[in-house]
Amino acid sequence: MRVIARKTLRKFTDGLKGSKDQKAVKSALDAWFHEVSRARWKSPADILKAYANASIVGADRVVFNIKGNSYRLVVAVNYPHQIVFIKWIGTHADYDGIDVKTVKYGH
User: Fold this and answer.
1) Distance of alpha carbon 10 from its chain centroid, rounded?
2) Are 47 and 54 in contact (CB under 8 A)?
């Protein structure tokens, strides 16, 4: 899968500097990025095989739990083109305030 855009993950972890979570979140997101970059998902079922705790939300949206569910990562997956678009990342508490089906990066 091609992940668009890794810069989003870096920017988020840079924003956590000084936080006790920063190292762990960076490590978890780096691992997620490398695993997803090597994946060849054809359907939501393929995602659930690798990430049993992921939530499939609609035809293309997936929510990943990061760092023991303290953080959430929302992506849109284009299976035919093998692209994962990062739509949102934040704390579990902030996640409760978004509409996961329509959230866009930067909003």
Assistant:
1) 12
2) yes
Which helix H or strand E contains 36, and what residues bound it? Answer: helix 22-38
Contact by Cβ (8 Å): 53, 46 = no
DSSP-derived pairing of the beta strands 61-66 and 55-57: antiparallel
Reading the block at residue 64, the tokens are: 């990943």
Question: Which residue's entry shows tokens 């810069």?
Answer: 7
Burial of 75 (0-12, 13-18, 19+ CB in 10 A): buried
pLDDT in tens, 43-73: 999 999 999 999 999 889 999 999 988 999 9
> Which stretch of DSSP H or E encloses residue 90?
strand 83-91
